Amino acid sequence: MIWTRHSLGNLVSQVTISIDGILILLFASMALRTAMAGRFAEHRRWALRLFMAASAVWFFRVALMGWATLTGGWGIDWESFTGPFVYALGVGQYLLPLAMLQWYFHCQQREAGQGTQLAFVSTLVPLTIFMAIGIFAATLGMWLPQV
Question: Which residue spans traverse the membrane (predicted)?
Fold first, then answer.
């Protein structure tokens, strides 16, 4: 749909959204394949990756509103919906959650030390606070006015 309907942004936005769509299809097929093969631990990991990729639009909106709240919208051209932050977020909307999920998987393994786990938590806490700010801003600015 991003290629056939008018949307905000430009070619960069279309490409980053298309990559997310490809990831969703890939992760869904891997989740299905591993479930049908009875490899349920592996299936769980693919299903969680699918959830993160499918949630990218939500991550985008929450991160956009969090960023706009904290910086006043630096790096965003609101007229054309382009700019360095929009481009970075276009890729970050799925890469950052997937990277954090992969790090979480690594922390679950026995060879992951306490230092790795502490680094993970030390990264996750500020990201969670940022998400809370973004959820609050998106609720007030995007979702409640539509109710």
Answer: 12-34, 46-65, 85-106, 118-144
pLDDT values of the chain reduced to their tens digit, one per residue, 147 residues: 677 776 777 889 889 999 999 999 999 999 999 999 999 999 999 999 999 999 999 999 999 999 999 999 999 999 999 999 999 999 999 999 999 999 999 999 888 899 999 999 999 999 999 999 999 999 999 889 888
Residue 5 lies in a domain: no
Stated pTM of the model: 0.90
Is 3 part of a structural domain of the chain? no
> Total structural domains in the chain?
1
Instruction: Judge whether 1 lies within some domain.
Output: no
Residue range(s) defining the domain that contains residue 38: 11-146
Tokens of 8: 């905000």
